Each structure stands twice: as C-alpha cells, then as structure tokens.
Amino acid sequence: MKSLKLIITLLICGTMASVAFAGNVTGTVTYEGDAPARKALTINTQEQHCIDATKGAKSEELVISKGKGIQNVVVYMRLRGTQELEIPKDKKKLTVDQKDCRYLPHVIAVPVGAIVDVTSSDPVAHNVHSYAAKNEAKNFIVKKKGEIIPYTITAAEAIKLTCDVHTWMSGYIVAVNSNYYTVTGQKDDKDKWIHPDDYEKSSDKGKYTLKDVPAGRARVVAWHEKLGTAFKNVEVPATGDISVDFKSTDFKLPKKK
C-alpha cells in the first residue's frame, strides 16, 4: 500500500512539475526585401456564385503585410524525449471549410491523430483532392452546403488540397508531431478570419505565440508552402518568455528527389 501511495505521489508531482516548469515561445516571421506581387487567379467556371465570390481574387501562396509579416506560416515545437506525451492532444474541433470558392483556412495545422472535418459553406458542389504521401490520399465530393467528410490524420506531413471542379482553389492540412503549434496572420483580436487582401494592407509582423511549452531544449520549426522550412534550437525557460524570430531568408525548400 505504501509503495502504491508513493507511486501516486510521484505521478502527481511529475504532472505538476511538467505544468509548472513551462515558458512561452514568442516571435515574428517576416519577409526580407520587397514583397512580390500576388498573382491574379484564373477563374474558370460558369457558376455565378463562384464568379461573384472570387471577383479580383489573388493567389494566397505568399501573402506579405505592409509590416513585412508573412501570413499562413505554421510554427510548432519539436520537444526532446517524451515531454510531448505528457500533454493531451488538442481536442478542439478542427474544420476545413470551402467558403466563397476558396479553402478556409488556407492552411490549417493539426496534431497527428486528429480528425479534420472537411465541409462547405457554398451552395455549389466541391471536389476535395488531397495530395498525401504518408496519409490516406483522399479524393471526394462535398455535394451540398453543410455536408461533413471526416479526414483522419495518421502521420506528420503537409497535405495539399485542391478542387478538381474549381482549379484555382488550394489549401493545406499541415500535420505535426506536436501539441504546440500555431499559424501566423489568420485571425484578428476578435477571432475572425483575416482575408489575405486585408492582411496585405495590415501592419502585422507575422507575430506568433506558443504558450506553456515544457522547459528544456527544443526546436522551433516554421513551415511555409512557398518558402519551405526553417528551424532554430532553443532552451525554453522554466517560466517567462523566450523570443524566436524568423526571416524569409532562414527558410529552405526541400531538395528535389
């Protein structure tokens, strides 16, 4: 009985320590030099809804603000040892919507093991074509507004999404082996989605925050669909913040096979 009590005590202390000794990782992701002009999208459709919704639409592949911030950069932590296993995976509802004939959000970050609900807010049918190498490469139709197709994520990778019906549409599900992740420039202070055109006009500096990261050696990773990947090794403090900034010149594209 004494040994059981000791084990329970140690488990409680270990859990408290893992929560107590944690810091926040904050920083910015900014673009060096002049921001390239966003390309106008070619809209090939006879559907009036999409014609009206996409009038003047530009590519979301690389969106830079006036403050040099970069929108849609996935920033996440890679921890050493088994620290990540001590914190439960994110249980909030994860959804990729198709609204106004575009993917919303354009990029979504999720932990491995998550189920992403793919749906549509549009009155037209969409085809979701996923390009996955490590996960199931799904290809399905969302026939009507409000229909939900679950997509289970089993491995870490960036999965590109397109629509075979509306060829200008694209987005990403970025699955990470982490419980600490975020995406830059997506929502305002009122938790509303920021349209890329509005982000481009803003003064945002690509700021991000990863809260309550367990103290110790770790790697901060940043991923962007156009720029590639960057990382920095850090020592997360037992309390307080540590600042980790990225510039576009830090990113590298994967080597072509």
Key traits:
257 residues; mainly beta; Immunoglobulin-like; five-stranded mixed β-sheet; four-stranded mixed β-sheet; 17 strands; 37% strand
Number of domains: 1
Instruction: Give the strand order of the largest sheet, numbering strands 1, 2, ... along the chain.
Output: 5-11-10-7-8
Individual helix count: 3
Uncertain segments are: 6-18, 82-87
CATH homolog superfamily: Cupredoxins -  blue copper proteins
Count the beta strands: 17
Biggest pleated-sheet summary = 5 strands, mixed
Strand content: 35-45%
Radius of gyration: 20 Å
Q: Any idea of the CATH class?
A: Mainly Beta
Binned, the helix content reads 10-25%
Taking all residues together, what is the mean pLDDT? 91
Can you walk through the features of this model?
The relative contact order is 0.25. It contains 3 helices and 17 strands. It is globular and about 55 Å long. Strands 5-11-10-7-8 form a 5-stranded mixed β-sheet, with no helix packed on it. Strands 1, 13, 16 and 17 form a 4-stranded mixed β-sheet that branches. It has 257 residues and is mostly beta strands. The model is unreliable at 6-18 and 82-87 (pLDDT under 50). Helix content is 12%, strand content 37%. It has a single domain (23-237), classed as Immunoglobulin-like, CATH 2.60.40. Strand 14 (216-224) and strand 15 form a beta hairpin.
